[in-house]
Amino acid sequence: MDNKDLLPLNNAVLQSEYIIKFIDEGIESKRMMEHGFIAKTRIKPMFRSMIGGSTAYLLNGCIVAIRDTQAEKIYVGKL
Amino acid sequence: MLKRFSGNNKRLYQKEDYEIALAGNPNVGKSTVFNALTGMNQHTGNWSGKTVDVAYGIYKYNNKTIRVVDLPGTYSMLEDSQEEHIANEYIRNNNSIIVVILDSTNLLRNFLLLIQILNLTNKVIVCLNFQDEVVKKGVVIDKEELSLQLGVPVLDLCAKKKTGLSVLKKTIDELHLSIIKTFTVKNLLINMDINKEKYIEELFDRCSALYSKTVRTKTNSTISKADKLFCNKITGIPIMLMMLGVIFWLTIFASNYISEYLSQLFEFIKSKLIYLFDYTKMSVGLKSFLVDGVYTTLSWVVAVMLPPMTIFFPIFSILEDSGVLPRIAFNLDRMFSRFGGNGKQALTMAMGFGCNCCGVTGCRIINTSKERNIAIITNPLIPCNGKLPSIIIISSLFFTISKNSLVNSVFTAVVVLIVIILSTLITLLISYILSLTIYKGKQSSFVIELPPYRKPQIIKTIIYSAKNRILIVLMRAVTVAIPAGALIWFISNTYINDVSILSYMNNALDPLGVIIGLDGVILLAFLLGFPANETVIPIILMSYLSSNTLTQYSSDAQLLSVLTSNGWTVITAVCFIILCVFHYPCSTTCLTIYKETKSIKTLSLSVLIPTVIGVSLCILINTLFSLVTFS
Q1: pLDDT tens digit string along B417-443?
Q2: Which of A14, B38, B146, B147 is the most buried (most CB within 10 A)?
Q3: How close does chain A come to B225, measured CA to CA in Å?
Q4: A3–chain B nearest CA distance, Å
Q5: Residue pair B60/B66 in contact by the 8 Å Cβ criterion
């Protein structure tokens, strides 16, 4: 996979489906992983928070919200 | 066996035959299963991390008494948080049967915990909860295959409708008697010696494999209409404020009526009590002590404070059940993070409206100690249910705009809402200052699950909350208002040189009271109200009345006339409300803060900060007003 195909999750388009390619090592990953933020998982940005700053994602059948600063360390590719 | 298990490990019942524990992710309905099994009333809510302590109960089956332990909800067993530590310790150190409750609508994530538990013990029964929602969502679970893949029994359950419970009890019994055997399938065992990230990755691979073998799902990936409105830039904030406004308005409007009926009832009982005491030829002093001191304070606290509490709590619980609270945390996270906090602080603040003790305990859902400490220290800045009725009463007496009671109640609701917004803004400001000074440090991550909206169990919640609140308020009334009533009667009826002790104390505090726009009586009431904020207004009234006894609460007009004849103005009311919101937390909250943090520093900050804010704001308002009227 070329790097140009990778996109930080915070730049992903709402309501489009992606697949998580890799997660930046620096990120506080444990809790994110528990919620399913892990390579090879399908993910779909659903909606942004009322005043921005975080986004709700659909993954593994449930909706989980994270801050955009965390999402920028998760790289996704188009399905 | 339970010694190493943190939490309340007191054995409540003497003769249990054996013990089982309920485990699962947060918000999978463990508390509902616990209640259904034991018939107890563990409070439930639709958001993660509600069970912050361990609950115990018992049920009987086949002439055996089985003790049930409700472990706190965790996502994993990696011991990164207090809840995970409690659950992990318990499973490792007890040979109990573990009933793992899974949210059937979200199995993949739930498998993470299940597989970790199966790596610790094989005495496991799996329950698939929310079976009703599974059908609606079009999820098909191959139960037999799942049981085969896991090596343990898998049962259907709908805790809310209490279906599947008898099969669960039977299976628990059979497993206890070794009629059925369980084992952990080799495929699921993971080598624990690898690093944490690798471990989670392996775990996730196992979960994905298990999921693809056992679950067929038709994922609904559309945004619900409720989320479209609630998480929308334009409609979100007005909806949130409207919700709060309606809650306060309902509380204010409905409690007026109940208060009136209750006070009539208490007046009737009082007349009968006096008749009885006269009949038994009781001495005048003792009669006055019992009727004017003890009974009247008690009836005051109950008549005035009970109605708003019994109304506010159920409405708030319904909101909790519906799944709205995590959305509020999600919507407000940016604001909180800019002030050094975390969106989850919105949840603990919301709990603080009910009771600051609950709010402080609830801060356990915040993972970093920096943000958790900030949330704990600022929680007492949110007016709790003991303070809210006083705020509501004084607002409804002094801030009226019309002769129409409906219009006035709406206006009072607006005033209370403004007070709430002010306390929220000050909470944010203090959080910001703390995050820049005492609690400097890197900001943590924010991950929150937004559970599906669930239809709240309205009738059940109302009955449960009303019953529970009435009991709590009555207990508090007995334990706090009675001794307080007795004490106040005593100090107001004991004279030194023809002046009562109460008057001495009031006079001593008066100069300070005047500076902050109040008087000695109000300050003394706040001091004596330390065990329970509910008693502040009754103490004020008792001190004001020349007969040294508390009058029966009969009408707002009577109450207003007592206050105004003792020099209360709109400014006094404003300063009273400010000091009521911003002063040291009650004794129980102080104890809880210390218990949660084991830090005198945190406790001192949470006592000093609100008090300094309250006193400073009152001085400012009073000085400004004096300057305006003087000029």
Answers
A1: 899 899 999 999 999 999 999 888 777
A2: B146
A3: 12
A4: 23
A5: yes
